[in-house]
């Protein structure tokens, strides 16, 4: 598509937004849905023609999915008597397999080469984020299962997209990949224990059962992916090319199913939950960065730890909520986290990539 086509698509998207706002102002909010959906869909494709914001395309697409699920929840509850919520666990397993298939011996060698930086990244993830989530759950006064969902999000490992945003932020991608891998591998052991510690007063936590569930969701698919990478690396290029698209489609469908299932709860507490998840995300960036600075890490590593700390694996949280049988309540925080996290990470990565890169160059020149 040419630049002109992208501009035309942007104009059409804005026109749909104006129509939706006009209808809402006239009292026809229930009929504005198709125009809001068209706005987000059009905008998600239009931004691809503008380099500074093209990274927001998938985030905006998720907003289209969220809007669709809010207006037409029946589309994502069941089809022909088949409950779509059943798909959440296998979808997360596919995403974990994709992560494992992209890993190799070099990633584990990196663990040995940077033990201090990796340790700080893992420590930040499993201390800062659970503590923040617990504090926010206490002050929010949410129903117990919603609070447990917020804490579950805080106890989750680093998002698999942290390495992408670290790359965009001119941070240390190898460190981001290593922290993501290690926190994910440790999650089946640490997450149930952290949930018992922080969320035990909100919902009953069966530690051993949760460990087994997470082993099935995380360790087994990643292990299969690692074997695939070892024995079939380079022999299935079609799968390597397809996995990122499959993962994105899986994330979109997971979000739609959870939003549809928890629509009523979201309408009742939606704004406050959005605010708490946003606060959790931003405070994660802040404290992750300054914890790295406290340990006298260089600027690139500080950025990496900040991004890795603030970004949670919301898809994995959704899978855990499904195994708990509480997808419409415990799973809500993770569903709204996806769009928020993608938006904030895009902004912080863009900032560090542009103005922030000057600080690194200045420091490197001084060292020379």
Structure description:
This protein has a two-stranded antiparallel sheet. The chain starts with a helix and ends with a helix. Helix 4 runs antiparallel to helix 11. The radius of gyration is 21 Å and the shape is globular. 77% of the residues lie in helices and 1% in strands. By secondary structure, the chain is mostly helical. The model has no long low-confidence stretch (mean pLDDT 84). The protein has 16 helices and 2 strands.
Quick gist of this model?
By secondary structure, the protein is mostly helical.
* Radius of gyration, CA atoms, in whole angstroms: 21 Å
Sheet of most strands: 2 strands, antiparallel
Distance between the termini: 45 Å
Helix content: over 70%
Could you state the order of secondary-structure elements as H and E? HHHEEHHHHHHHHHHHHH
* Large-scale geometry: globular
- Quote the beta fraction: under 5%
Enumerate how many helices there are, as a single number. Answer: 16
Q: Ranges with pLDDT <50 over ≥5 residues?
A: none
Mean pLDDT: 84
Spatial sequence of strands, sheet with the most strands: 1-2
């Amino acid at each position: 598509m040419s630049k002109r086509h992208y501009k035309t698509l942007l104009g059409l998207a804005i026109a749909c937004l104006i129509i939706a706002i006009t209808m809402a102002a006239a009292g026809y909010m229930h009929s504005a849905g198709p125009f809001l959906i068209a706005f987000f869909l059009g905008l998600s494709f239009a931004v691809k023609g503008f380099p500074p914001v093209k990274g927001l395309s998938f985030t905006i697409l998720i907003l289209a999915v969220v809007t669709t699920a809010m207006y037409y929840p029946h589309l994502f509850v069941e089809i022909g008597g088949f409950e779509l919520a059943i798909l959440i666990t296998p979808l997360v397993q596919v995403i974990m397999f994709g992560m494992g298939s992209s890993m190799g011996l070099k990633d584990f060698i990196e663990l040995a080469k940077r033990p201090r930086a990796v340790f700080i990244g893992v420590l930040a993830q499993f201390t800062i984020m659970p503590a923040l989530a617990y504090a926010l759950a206490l002050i929010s006064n949410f129903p117990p299962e919603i609070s447990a969902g917020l804490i579950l999000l805080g106890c989750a490992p680093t998002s698999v997209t942290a390495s992408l945003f670290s790359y965009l932020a001119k941070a240390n991608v190898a460190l981001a990949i290593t922290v993501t891998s290690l926190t994910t591998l440790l999650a089946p052991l640490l997450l149930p224990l952290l949930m018992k510690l922080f969320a035990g007063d909100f919902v009953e936590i069966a530690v051993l059962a949760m460990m087994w569930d997470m082993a099935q969701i995380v360790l087994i698919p990643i292990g299969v992916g690692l074997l695939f990478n070892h024995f079939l690396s380079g022999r299935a290029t079609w799968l390597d090319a397809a996995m990122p698209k499959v993962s994105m489609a899986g994330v979109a469908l997971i979000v739609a199913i959870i939003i549809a299932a928890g629509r009523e709860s979201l309408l009742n507490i939606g704004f406050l939950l959005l605010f708490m998840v946003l606060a959790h995300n931003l405070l994660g960036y802040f404290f992750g960065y300054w914890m790295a600075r406290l340990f006298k890490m260089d600027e690139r590593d500080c950025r990496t730890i900040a991004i890795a700390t603030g970004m949670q694996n919301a898809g994995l949280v959704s899978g855990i909520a499904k195994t708990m049988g509480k997808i419409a309540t415990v799973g809500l925080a993770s569903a709204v986290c996806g769009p928020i996290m993608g938006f904030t990470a895009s902004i912080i990565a863009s900032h560090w990539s542009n103005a922030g890169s000057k600080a690194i160059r200045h420091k490197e020149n001084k060292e020379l």
